[in-house]
Amino acid sequence: QFLMANKLDTAMWISRLFTVYCSALFVLPLLGLHEAASFYQRALLANALTSALRLHQRLPHFQLSRVFLAQALLEDSCHYLLYSLIFVNSYPVTMSIFPVLLFSLLHAATYTKKVLDARSSNSLPFLRNLLEKLNANQQNILKFIACNEIFLMPATVFMLFSGQGSLLQPFIYYRFLTLRYSSRRNPYCRTLFTELRIVVEHLIMKPSCPVFVRRLCLSGISFISRLAPTVA
User: Fold this and answer.
1) Cα–Cα separations (whole angstroms), residue 122 to 62, 117, 150
2) Which of 110, 92, 82 is nearest to 34 (CA)?
3) Which residues contact 77 (CB under 8 A, 6 or more apart)?
4) Nearest CA-CA partner of 100 in 40, 57, 36, 54
5) Rounded Cα–Cα distance for residues 179 and 78 (Å)
6) Confidence of residue 93 (pLDDT cuts 50, 70, 90)
7) Is the C-alpha dihedral spanning 8, 10, 16, 21 positive or negative?
8) 3-state secondary structure of 119
9) pLDDT tens figures, 17-29
10) Pair 59, 75: CB distance under 8 Å
């Protein structure tokens, strides 16, 4: 009754579980490397479906207008719909599947707990303990996802020069990264950029750091800072 009363949430729950399943079989290619590539695509397509359903839930009345597009781009679900489309037809990159896998796992765990509560307050204690542990590590998981989002930017450039990526991919991914940086709901990408800058500045200001390395890092920090969008 709970699942039927919340059909859209249940559909997203099933698609997230399927995303976790496909992502796991890509990361751990138990069925062979050829099959792993197909699971990579399936995971991203399932994530695109979940993101589209979530976006529909957040903005139910679609309009072909500039205002609607601006509102959609503020939603994290729109960001990850774009993310899935960026990588779904690209060369499989293990780093790119982790954000999809972990976000799906976190959201699926939250809804699984609701399903268990609807069934009985004491049902499946072992599974409940696993969900509690996952929830306790949520902040670390979100930081890890943000770290993946950031380091995928140079990875897309490397893929371009190695012949495994398209010319447009780094530019589209840069747009995705600016949306994540400006996210209203998830500040972890912004936080990680700040933390990485502090760590790098601390290391290069040590007397043992060569001058040319210090100048190179400071130039890089200045360049990245100019590319960062303004956050209200």
Assistant:
1) 41, 8, 41
2) 92
3) 50, 51, 52, 54, 55, 58
4) 40
5) 9
6) confident
7) negative
8) helix
9) 999 999 999 998 8
10) yes
In the numeric block, which tokens belong to residue 75? 């939603």
Three-class SS of residue 50? helix
Contact assessment for residue 94 and residue 27, using Cβ atoms and an 8 Å cutoff:
yes
> What's the token pair of residue 214?
């210090």
pLDDT in tens, 179-198: 999 888 888 999 999 999 99
Angle ∠(86,92,93) on CA atoms, nearest 5? 85
Q: Is the pTM of this model over 0.90?
A: no
Residue 212 tokens read as: 């040319």
Distance CA 48, CA 88 (A): 9
Task: Quote the tokens at residue 61.
Answer: 């009345």
